[in-house]
Design brief:
The strands form three sheets. Strands 6-3-2-1-7-9-8 form a seven-stranded mixed β-sheet, with helices on both faces. A three-stranded antiparallel β-sheet has the order 10-12-11. It is built from 15 helices and twelve strands. With 437 residues, it is an alpha/beta fold. The longest helix is centred in the last third of the chain and has 21 residues. The chain folds into two domains: 206 residues, Rossmann fold (3-Layer(aba) Sandwich); 130 residues, no CATH class.
Amino acid sequence: MGKKYIDKNVLDAFMERLTYIFSKFDHVIVSFSGGKDSGLLLELVNLYYARRRPSSKVSVYHIDYEGNYQHTIDYVARCMRKYPYFDYYHLCMPVSASCGVSMHQSTWLPWNPEEKDIWLRERPEGSITIDNHDFDFFEVGMSDYVFQTKFGKWLHKKNNAKRTAVLVGIRSQESLNRYHAVTRSNTFRMFGRIAYSTRISMNIFNFYPLYDWMVEDVWTANARFGFDYNKLYDLYYLAGVPIGEMRVANPFHECGVEALKLYRAIEPNTWSRLVGRVNGANFGAIYGGTKAVGYRDISLPKGHTWKTYVKFLLETLPRKTRDIYERKFESSCWYWLEKGGALPIRTVAELRRAGIAFESLGKPSGNRKYKSEYEVVRFAEYPDDVKLKDFRLLPSYKRMCVTIMKNDTSCKYMGFSQTKDELQKGREAIAIWESIL
């Protein structure tokens, strides 16, 4: 999708998007995480609502993952009930959340009723819990993503809405995945031809109206309008965290492993509870972002090849986790040794110069469109190590080792698109689509 330049600032563009959304949807949901983007989203929706007073009903929800900085907890408390003309849902439910710090569990269960003695804190007053909810869809341990989808449908039905728009504070600057989410060309999943929208189910759509904002725009808006925000960001700034790397999320999420160590400096009391809550938290805080978890050049132990080191690492893992890796690694071997994979021609040229044996199968076939020229190659044997610039694109046993040490059971590092807990997510995805069809 090519760039399209418009002669207006991001605030004016955002307000125009809200005007369109409120004109088409009689129910609008704001997804509020407690971070800078969702916080700004809530404030801007209120600014629009206070000025225009649209007839659409507005709901705000927050999923509380139990563990967080006190500043975040305080900020969420200030926001949940802040504007009396919105409906609020503070959700403290035992839903399965991603865990990137433990080799023994790919998910963890906030507010687990069977672990109440080690909860990081008490549930906030007025929150919706396993003891007082009236969700007909809820199951203990269901994934947070499935919960959000079904909760949106539940709210849609509760409000007798004809159409529901779920506003999510995603900005394309944050990551390539987020950029892809808001620059899609699949019109089947859009609302009309709105690229920053995604169909969730019948008459329920996600919208990302902040998608083209830069992080500087977020803080400029907060300063200009005097919006309240999570004061944790002030502490991040004092701790020397770059402005583009400040995150507020589930503390054990794989994307936040590097930030775990900040708890020790910013809130040591919270940190002491985190260590006892999920296996691997301390290791993640000490070694997150280092070669111990594959974030820098790792060295090969004496007496090993990368192939034998893969075998050694796999043997240290729990059976369930090992099985996931072995399936993915076998698939990778079949793909590169039997079927063949597409690589940029510059990378193929580097392989030739390095003397690595492979067979050229010509240009890629099929409907996939490549932005540059690619060539399909099939390797004579699976490489132990490939010391080339495009290391991540190329198969090697060393790449497998890095994947294991990253605790990357989804094998995203190797180019796999599957989710982390593949079997569980597969069953849940089938259930979602069955309920839609």
